[in-house]
Amino acid sequence: MPLPKAELHLHIEGTLEPELAFALAVRNGVTLPYADTDALREAYRFQDLQSFLDLYYGLMTVLRTEADFEELADAYLARAAAQGVRHAEIFFDPQAHTARGVDIGTVVEGLGRALDRARERHGVTTRLILCFLRDQSAESALETLEAAEPYLHRITGVGLDSAEVGHPPRKFAAVYEAAAALGLRRVAHAGEEGPADYVREALDVLGVERVDHGLRCVEDADLVARLVRDRVPLTLCPLSNVRLRAVDVLEEHPLPRMMDAGLLCTVNSDDPAYFGGYVEDNFAAVRQALGLGEERLRELARNSFEAAFLDDDEALRAAYLAEVEAYTFP
Ligand code: HPA
Ligand SMILES: [Zn+2]
User: Fold this and answer.
1) How far apart are CA 266 and CA 247, in angstroms?
2) Structural domain of residue 50, as residue ranges?
3) What does the pLDDT look like over 266-322, one tens digit per residue?
4) pTM recorded for the entire structure
5) Which active-site residues does the annotation give?
6) Distance CA 302, CA 185 (A)
7) Is the distance from the beta carbon of residue 156 to the nearest atom of ligand 1 less than 6 Å?
8) What is the CATH number of the domain that holds 55?
9) What's phi and psi for 101, nearest 5 deg?
10) Residue 290 falls inside a structural domain
11) Number of domains present in the structure of the chain
């Protein structure tokens, strides 16, 4: 039985496995530019974030109906549960769908159907986080938030993803202010490919409570001190960092140094269908490559529940944390 954990950095569109992509392509009459699943997997040789995003946005054109989004989310939840996930905070990218004529309601209601049954079916509690695409305009982000208003009962927070460099957090100050006024929690990708300054800006200008990735904070000692002092969680994704060349090899990932510095680190899968593994695969990889001991792994699991948006159910958070403490490694 794997270590119980929360997954806090997971793009649902990034869980689209080649087999499901081809099945949905057939169902929806979409022609993919790959002969078969092996040819598609062959294309997963990324140079950087952009080369990944090109494939990621291309493949998700097979997602068209509520049933498609439901099936996608249900398949993720089944895999996540098998990897010890008790609680998942799931990102989705509405603009990637509305831009090709799929209504935001189709996306949210489809995902929602799977999430409504997640606890009963898979023993996983869930939250949904709407992400704005930072390479789209600030106006488009505001329109997206407006379009989401009928579905806010299903949405816990907002995030910011897609191509980072050249799209600093401050571009989205207005939409984050509007999201806060609606009572939404705030997170943002920062410091994945972008500089440490983007992490600071996400905190100062967007008011984020967690930083997604945040890897490059290590280049700025004052920023690290602040993140430690304020216990700002970082949602790290080690296998993603290797695949997208944010680090050269896993053995050089700064995770152990970051934990030693007192940063509140979590380990997550990001886009598991593309990056070679789900969350327990990431735990196993860092355990192996970085020599993390059992207490470090337990700390990562504890951190994941501490950083989760479970403030509306502290009893549940306490139950999850108790499970982490009671866990015995095989
Ligand atoms: O790893 C990522 N980074 C930025 N945007 C993304 N959208 C999906 N995955 C990612
Ligand atoms: Zn991400």
Assistant:
1) 17
2) 5-324
3) 999 999 999 999 999 999 999 999 999 999 999 999 999 999 999 999 999 999 999
4) 0.98
5) 192
6) 21
7) no
8) 3.20.20.140
9) 85, 10
10) yes
11) 1
Q: Is residue 69 part of a domain?
A: yes
- Give one DSSP letter per residue of 217-266, joined into a string: GGG-HHHHHHHHHTT-EEEE-HHHHHHTTSSSSGGG-SHHHHHHTT-EEE
User: Which pair of tokens denotes residue 9?
Assistant: 């950095």
Is there a binding annotation on residue 9?
yes
Q: Is the CB of 4 under 6 A from ligand 1?
A: no
Residue 307, CB half-sphere, CA atoms under 13 Å: how many?
A: 33
Tokens of 103: 């209504």
Instruction: Report residue 45 as tokens.
Output: 């040789």
- The answer to whether 179 and 158 are in contact (CB under 8 A) is yes
| pLDDT above 90 coverage of the chain, percent | 100
Atom 6, ligand 1: residue with shortest CA distance: 162
- Sequence letter at residue 6: A
**Sign of the torsion angle spanned by Cα atoms 152, 157, 161, 167:** positive
- Which atom of ligand 1 is nearest the CA belonging to 13? 8
Q: Is 271 annotated as a binding residue?
A: yes
In a domain, 330, yes or no: no
CB 268 less than 6 A from any atom of ligand 1: no
Question: Is the residue at 329 inside a domain?
Answer: no
Residues contacting 29, CB < 8 A, separation 6+? none
